[in-house]
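ok trying this again, last paste got cut off
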Amino acid sequence: MIVWSGKGFLSIIVLIASFILLVKVLSKEHSDHAFILSFFITGAFSWFMGKKWNEEEGKTMIDKASGEEVVIKPNHSLF
């Protein structure tokens, strides 16, 4: 089962798109490497974009019942 939150599903789309593109671009001799290269590309995409998207500042709200401050931050992940 694949579970994601936020924009985490984009990693799967990048994986599929990069694999298809690499199979078409690479020669027949090197087409076996398309699978490995697509995982490297997806890993780089996930790291850079996840770092960018998850570092956004959270919103601070006050819980009316308890009076405590609650910070709500964006979460973009893929499991």
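PB: full thing came through this time. The mean pLDDT is 88.
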